[in-house]
Amino acid sequence: MIRPGLGCCRPNELETQVIAVYGTDLIELAPSILSADFAHLADQIGRATAGGGSVIHVDIMDGHFVPNITIGPPVVRSLRKATQVPLDCHLMIENPDQYIPDFADAGANWISVHQEASRHLNRTLHLIKSHQCQAGVVINPATPVETLSEVLEIVDYVLVMSVNPGFGAQEFIPSALHKMRKLAEIRAERGYSYRIEVDGGVALDTVSDVVRAGAEILVAGNAVFGKGDPKTNAAALLDAARSASLIKV
Ligand code: DX5
Ligand code: ZN
Fold first, then answer.
1. What's the gap in Å between 249 CA and the centre of ligand 2?
2. Percent of the chain scored above 90 by pLDDT?
3. DSSP 3-state of 236
């Protein structure tokens, strides 16, 4: 039997169940290039994947849905040539339907859209799937899990924002944890298969909490690319995630 690692308190039954069912083999690190050196993206990605990053998280911002602007399909197309690992495109944009085909064509493997930015969310998720991409839905810190009730059956992953989207290196918002637990609980109850991803403020001091809450795909920007060597940073974070989640008893 396995249970979550040492913490301030004994894990509750649900946490134990989540870890026991999903284990650590399915924990993945998704380095976010938002904090990388954009003049050396291929090298930075290579270092992060050498350290165990198995998905590259790409933050797409339009200056409308969030107060920042980043990159578009041409950069995704170049990234596609620079790495073999899946590209996880997190669309923080208005009117995502208009751009989903372009991102898919550029080489995105996973595409997620915000619940708050999608007027016809069911249609948008099917649009992503129609382009042979994994479809994800994202919720902001102020958005309850309950708003996703009618789409959880069709999504491949749910991304819980643990900061308000728009910028890297922000402080982790602890109220995101109960949403991950809730998503794990709903998945078990209803027999769904989505994975749970967390994004924002994931670092050595928060990673054990998110893993114990049920997160399986860990997005990390500043903790991987902020300072030092991305390979070392990624390896340390992944190690901390895995050792926090598994203590055999
Ligand atoms: C924020 C982005 C995140 C960001 C996370 O809007 O969605 O992916 O890169 O950065 P850190 O890990 O630095 O909080
Ligand atoms: Zn993101």
1. 35
2. 87
3. helix
